[in-house]
Each structure stands twice: as structure tokens, then as C-alpha cells.
Amino acid sequence: MISRQVEVSLGERSYPIYVGSDMVSSFAATCDHHGLPKHVALVTDSTVSKLYLKPLEKNLRHFGYQTMAIVFPPGEQQKSLSRANTIFSAMLKSGLGRKSAVIALGGGVIGDLAGFVAATYKRGVPLVQVPTTLLSQVDSSIGGKTAVNHPLGKNMIGAFYQPKFVWADIECLKTLPLREIVCGLGEIIKYGIISDAELFSYLEKNLDQILNLKPESVLHVQATCSAIKAGLVSQDERESGVRVILNFGHTVGHALEAAGKYKVLKHGEAVLLGMMAESYIARELAMIDRDVYAKIVNLIRRVPLKVHVKVLRSKKILEAMGRDKKSVGGKRRFVLPTRIGHVKVVEVQDQQVIRGSLDMVTNRER
Ligand SMILES: NC(=O)c1ccc[n+]([C@@H]2O[C@H](COP(=O)([O-])OP(=O)(O)OC[C@H]3O[C@@H](n4cnc5c(N)ncnc54)[C@H](O)[C@@H]3O)[C@@H](O)[C@H]2O)c1
Ligand SMILES: [Zn+2]
User: Fold this and answer.
1) CA quadruple 351, 283, 204, 4: dihedral, nearest 10
2) Is the CB of 129 under 6 A from ligand 1?
3) For 183-232, how does the pLDDT look when each residue is reduced to its tens digit (9 = 90+)?
4) Which residues are CB-neighbours of 309 under 8 A, at least 6 positions away?
5) The domain 178-362: what is its CATH number?
6) Distance (Å) from CA 178 to ligand 1 centroid
7) Atom of ligand 1 at shortest distance to CA of 147?
8) Is pLDDT of 331 > 70?
9) Which of 58, 153, 277, 348 is most deeply buried (CB count within 10 A of its CB)?
């Protein structure tokens, strides 16, 4: 049942995000409603395919869709040009023309990769995002950023390409390992800090409900976060302005991920630590007082993050920060909180403060 609908407003590229539970039986009818071509490539990974592919295929076929499943192993390393190429080959061999569509069924890896394939296959075919992780439901499936990684950097090859709709069924979350719920919480807490003090206090009160996937809490948080992201994307599709605030926690977060060669930390985990580090920087620069800092850090500390960050060296993290595609002319640009629910873009010169923030997160005892 669809219980919430959030609109991304981008003129003729506008689209809805449907949020609800047990939604599979109305999927094909929604595809019809959005005029999706009847030939679809369902791109997914082997974990998700075992759980959710069959019911979706059955529903689509029942409504006259011809489906072709393209399944490969899970993992960030799949987000590559060579994997995109094997998907192109499979689609070409089966004769999918411009009147076909791509359905991305899975987490952010699938969404980014299948989205990139849809953006470029025969110069672009319609895309539907069916996110199945908490992180992809609240964040990566919304906003049209698609990409694959390059050996020289993450998300280096890609396109802005909006889906026809996003289909976020919270039922899928029940099979997620706790670690993936934790990752989703990274982005969820971020939304509270960057733009919604009410969401932040809701999380303070209901963190356990979300960790235990209580449907009401999850639906509330999903809809709230989707609306925040949809609002930012609607104002600034290509991240030349306000959308940049979504990068709170990500300047340090991306560098932490890279310093661990993407093996130590998952994206959402790195964002949790990145938000702690960047809040520390904001405190040191007197942008927030100690109470606000303590509120942020206390909430993040309640998330059951089980990672070994002591292996990461501040020097390596700083090097990675310098390579980030978002660093401007060598200066380190951060999105930093000024209070709960508000952030500001700041260029930080003080290396000692940055280093201090990295030492703080990498030496942290849990
Ligand atoms: N495009 C964007 O705006 C954007 C934003 C944030 C993150 N990202 C990207 O998203 C990726 C991370 O996404 P993610 O955290 O969803 O990871 P993921 O796609 O790797 O999924 C995590 C794991 O969960 C499994 N899984 C997925 N759904 C499941 C389910 N319902 N039940 C059981 N297991 C399930 C997957 O097989 C995988 O092993 C990164 O590549 C990141 O760069 C993109
Ligand atoms: Zn992120």
C-alpha cells in the first residue's frame, strides 16, 4: 500500500517518490501509469534478486511486460565501467531498443550503476528506481545522480539522470543486516542537522524504533527525508547551489572511505564519522557552541557503529581529501552546522583544526 507520495519538481522531468509497505502488487500498474515501455531490463544483485526479483517480475508479466533480469554479485566494486559494459552487452544481445526501460532493483550501488546504464544506453532510456536499502530509499535513489567508479576515484564517470518514479517499499528493509540500517541512519541524521531540527529531535526520541524498523517511525522518517531531498533537488538539480548542503559529513566521510580503500568503511558509516569530525571543526571555529556539538555527537554515538577506524591514518585521510572532486583550488570546503537544522558552506584553512577532527574520529573508543 502506498502511504505517502513526495514530488520532485523539475518541470517536465518531475516525478513522484512513492513510499509505503507491501507495494509489490501495484508496481506494474504504476509503471503503466507512467507510460513505461513494455520491455524492461531489471538490473539487480544476487542478494536482492533472491529476495525480491520474482514477485516483481511476476507482477510485471501479469500486466504484459516482457522482463529480462540482469543479475551480478553485490558490492561497491561492481560500480564500474566494465560492469556497465556487460549490462549494455546483455541488453543489446536481447534486442532491447530505445523503447525499453531500466528498473534498478537494489541498494545505492545498483541505483547508481543501473541509472548510469539507463542514462547512456542508446542515448537514454526511461529509468525506475526501486531502492531496497534504507540508505538508497532516503537518499541515493532520489535526485538523479548516477555514476560508476574509476580506478582514480569514486563516482568519477556519470550523469545527472532523473527516474520516472521512485518506489520505496519499507517491507524490503526487514531483510537488511543491521550494518545497512546503520548506514541509512547516517544520511537520515544528516537531514536533521542540515535542515530539520524537528526531525533531529524525533530521531533523539525514536532512534531505537528506527533501528527496530517500527513501520510508523520508518515511514515517517522516509517521507520526511525524501521531502527534504526532493526540495533541495527541485531547487538545484545539478548541485551548483543549495544542494551542496547534502554534503555535510561527506568531505571527511569520502576521505575516510578512500583512506580505507573502501574496505574499512561503508558509505553511511563514513558519513556518521564525517559528521562527528565536521561538527568538531564547527565547534573549534566557534560556529556552534558545546551544547549543540554534544547533541550531535551524542545522537551519533547511540548508533551501533561497529568499525575499526584506528587503522586509518590522518595523513592518508588528508591526502584523500585533497583529491576529492569537490575540493576547490586546493582549499578545503566544508558544509558546517551553525545550529541544529542549519548549515553553512565554509572554506577552512586551519590545518590543525582539520587534523584534530580526524584524530578525534580515528582514535575514538567505542
Ligand atoms: N546517487 C546518489 O545520490 C548517492 C547518494 C548516496 C550514496 N550513493 C551510493 O550508494 C552506494 C551505497 O548504497 P547502499 O548503502 O544502498 O549499498 P549497496 O547497494 O551496496 O547495498 C548494501 C548491501 O545490502 C544488500 N541488500 C540490498 N537490499 C537488501 C535487502 N532489502 N535485504 C537484504 N540485503 C539487501 C546488497 O546486496 C548489498 O550487499 C554507494 O556506492 C554510494 O556512492 C549514491
Ligand atoms: Zn551520502
Assistant:
1) -70
2) no
3) 999 999 999 999 999 999 999 999 999 999 999 999 999 999 999 999 99
4) 256, 260, 264, 265, 273, 361, 362, 364
5) 1.20.1090.10
6) 13
7) 1
8) no
9) 277
